[in-house]
Design brief:
Fumarase C, Chain B, domain 1; elongated; mainly alpha; Fumarase C, Chain A, domain 2; two-stranded parallel ribbon; 501 residues; single chain; 9 strands
Length: 501
């Protein structure tokens, strides 16, 4: 359980909380925390009373900041902001992603620079506690001024508007709140823009993407080891001494994982007369290791963002100042996601190339063509699975075009340079999904190949454990049969991180 207002939010904690309906995060009830939050709201009240102009509070939004709002209409402005941004399209974010978005936004507001009341934070925490999930379209954010359109669905739901998912059903937010005897929230000045004008959507998606990518990197090391065994390859390509000579830490980490899965110092010699294996085996640490080498940097970008104040303007209780700036800009998340999707797509391509080796009798060192388990020619084994894996890897590679360079000038040239961070995060999730599919094919193919080898090779315990987990549900092919069900089961287990790596 994460305590918002007390604990620093981490990717690991957020990813776990997103899977736990109603149990992932709670708001601190410490008196000093509540007093600090309310002090910001009280300061804003004094600033308004003094006649100091504050963007989005006493003015219109965006390019309309030249329009002054009369004091009698200040409470009407926030709800209008939520309404006119209700124009999202595309698929809706899945439940785990919506939970992550709400937790991230709550945490950023809890930094104490947003001039919101503790009542608003408690309203968001109520949604988290009762697993009231706003229906949040994926598309419509340019990543600066934050995730305005998707976050408007959170703000609108808090106010009793828009639809939510509650107890497995889609219903109006007002209906879900009424069933819990909870009144819709009424925004104070600045509170709607504080909810909406930030990076919570891209940030949450980035955190979930990073969490997924780490497991896929670990799993790809294990699949590589399985394929090396199946192809009677060379364990010497992963010797610690070799990687000491080119000491990229992440590359060495990948090599050590592969070497350990092969049995370490007791790994079978392999090689079958060839002193060097193809690059997709020999250079696997150089591909997979890029994730480990970049992990700290990417994690730093994502976790700094989710523990920051990133709306506008910021109200500082300590100095009494109003700071108009651009912390809603998602450039760090955009770069992190553009980087991560390139790394992930290269891993998909690597495993696709390994599958191509293991099915091809010109390269698979004595295995049946296409890993067929029965009469060749009549049965074709993994022929179509290899085609499918190639399609998934190719689509992953196609989606690596960086989103961050496609800035568009919007909103009367006020938002004239934008991050596209949310698009980058969505692209990355798609690439990771395709990579997961490719790895599912690779895991089944490697297990089929090792089973076809029979007693001809020794499978060391680490590799044998993963193969055994596959064989719990996958019956290796004899005669041909459709493999979609096996692939989907493998994919589900990958998504649940259900394999030893």
């Amino acid at each position: 359980m994460i305590t918002i207002g007390k604990d620093r939010l981490t990717i690991r904690a957020l990813a776990a909380a997103a899977k736990e309906p109603g149990r992932g995060a709670a708001l601190s009830t410490a008196k000093d925390f509540e007093e600090h939050i309310n002090a910001g709201a009280a300061l804003l009240d004094r600033i308004i009373a003094a006649g100091v102009p504050v963007y989005g509070v006493t003015t219109g939004y965006g390019d309309s900041c030249t329009e002054t709002i009369g004091k009698g209409r200040l409470k009407d402005l926030p709800l209008n902001l939520t309404r006119y941004h209700g124009c999202g399209l595309g698929a809706y974010l899945d439940d785990a992603a919506v939970r992550a978005v709400m937790i991230v936004r709550l945490n950023t507001l809890a930094q104490g620079f947003s001039a919101v009341s503790i009542d608003l934070l408690q309203a968001i925490a109520f949604f988290i506690e009762h697993d009231i999930l706003p229906r949040m379209p994926e598309e419509g954010s340019v990543g600066a001024s934050g995730d305005l359109t998707p976050l408007s669905y959170l703000a609108g739901a808090l106010a009793g508007e828009r639809d939510v998912r509650y107890q497995g059903e889609t219903m109006p937010a007002a209906q879900a709140l009424a069933s819990l005897k909870r009144a819709p929230y009424r925004f104070r000045p600045k509170e709607a823009i504080a909810v909406m004008n930030g990076t919570a959507v891209m940030n949450a998606l980035a955190a979930l993407a990073f969490s997924r990518a780490r497991f896929l990197a670990d799993l790809s090391c294990r699949i590589t080891a399985l394929n090396i065994l199946a192809l009677k390859g060379n364990a010497c390509h992963f010797l610690p001494r070799l990687f000491a000579a080119k000491p990229h830490a992440g590359q060495g980490h990948a090599a050590s994982r592969i070497f350990a899965a092969l049995g370490g110092e007791h790994a079978p010699a392999g090689g079958q007369g060839k002193i060097q294996d193809p690059y997709s085996l020999r250079c696997a640490p150089h591909v997979i290791g890029l994730f480990y080498d970049m992990a700290d940097t990417l994690r730093g970008f994502i976790e700094t963002e989710m523990n920051s104040a990133n709306d506008n303007p910021l109200i500082d209780v300590e100095t009494g100042g109003v700071y108009h700036g651009g912390h809603f800009y998602g450039g760090h998340i955009a770069l992190a996601m553009d980087t991560l999707k390139v790394i992930a797509a290269n891993i998909a391509d690597l495993i696709d190339r390994q599958i191509a080796l293991v099915v091809d009798p010109k390269f698979n060192r004595g295995l049946p063509a296409n890993l067929a388990g029965a009469e060749a020619g009549l049965h074709h084994g993994f022929k179509a699975v290899q085609i499918g894996a190639s399609a998934w890897a190719a689509e992953a590679l196609k989606n690596t075009m960086p989103a961050s360079v496609f800035s568009r000038s919007t909103e009367c040239h006020n938002q004239d340079k934008v991050s596209m961070g949310t698009i980058a995060a969505r692209d990355c999730r798609r690439v990771l999904g395709l990579t997961s599919q490719t790895l599912a094919a690779g895991l089944l193919a490697a297990s089929q190949a090792l089973r076809l080898r029979g007693g001809g090779i020794t499978v060391p315990p680490p590799a044998a454990q993963t193969m055994g987990e596959v064989l719990e549900y996958f019956t290796p092919l004899g005669e041909d049969r459709p493999l979609e069900g096996d692939l989907r089961e493998t994919l589900a287990r990958i998504e649940a991180e259900g394999f030893s790596v």
